[in-house]
Amino acid sequence: MESQVVDRNIAVALEMIAEGLDTLFVAGVEPRSAVDATTMVVELERLKRRVDAAQVDLTDAIHQRCLHRADGHASAKSMIRHLAKLSPAEAAGRDKAARVCRGLPDVAAAYRTGDIGTDQVRLLGRIWANPRGRDHMAQRQQRFISDARTKRVVDFERDTRSWERIADHDGAPPATERPHRHRDVSLIQDHFDLGWKLRANGGAFDGASMREILDMYIQAEWHIDWEKAKAEHGDNACVAHLARTDAQRRFDALAQIFRDAAACPDGAVPPGYCHDVVWDAHTYMAMASRIDPTTPSQPLDPDTYRCSTLNGVPLDPNEAIVRSLTDHIRRVVVDATGVVIDLSRKARLFTGSSRHAVKLNASTCIWPGCYVPTSMCEVDHLHESDKGGTTEPANGAPLCGKHNRWKQKGFAIGRNTDGTYETRRPDGTRIE
Description:
Number of helices: 16
Distance between the termini: 36 Å
Structural class: alpha+beta
Oligomer: single chain
Number of domains: 3
Number of strands: 11
Shape: globular
Strand content: 5-15%
Strand order of the largest sheet: 4-3-5-6
């Protein structure tokens, strides 16, 4: 396809990209092995990121030179939305990405080489929209790039948003106060089919606690279905044989919580439940100093800050430090690598601290690409106990039931010196 761009250098470049894609489609996007598939996913994603970066640079160039005015468009955003047939959200995303790339040249360079993705750049663009944080962002560019390279998008967004909240010293009061203040729940019946809809709004701490309890009940409902499937189909049982869908099990789990609560005297918490709160050492000491009038108050460090549930749900540290004194809360303090350095024994109804210490090192199953929360995972030895492995947190890893069984197929899981996990195929190659 011959480009209609007047500038011949740009036209030739676009034609070469088009010819390369034509060659790829002729060859067929059909990998011959899992290794080829992994490589193709990574390389095609890198190329896509570079194309996305070129689109962002184009958006910025249109804005800087006011080229949108030639056809009567109100802005570069409205121009590209119209010409490229984009959704309002997509056009706004490109515009935000263009603004942050203009202000953060190191981030822009990493974007153009494909080292960081479009989702991460657009998130930084939304944070860049707050002028109070721009100076801090400019100084932190390399940290953003490093986190974007190594972290999953969901973890990058959570950690970056947390950094933004802590770094903006002059901003509004913590947003966590608003949902807690406006907490509400309604159970509404549809008069046509007599069905019910449950709707609730609440604060971060209570919501995270409720989610952990619900996950445990969902897991119990799943085991019920799985045992029935095994009884009927034996070793041939699979997910397709489960009697209920995921959505049905979630509702049934919620209904069981209500029934168990009604059976508990005086609304007591079901035995065995304990709410873990994970802190980095600096944040915990800083928050503890605020309730001790004899010690000077310490500022929070946005780069080391951590105050979350076992599954990685962020919590308000002010509320967490107060709750830890009164509720069924277990304090877990970790160092910079995520290794547990202090495990409180405050919760009187809990046993198996080693098991929970392992789960505190990750928010999900540590298998690459698996998002099962650790509250629903099993704990297994990295170095098998029958081969001399010890039962201690450093030799354990949280794995969902499926991936724990995959170790029997020759897959191996190890732990690096920096505390991160790595998974290898039977042939020794690493799963990215």
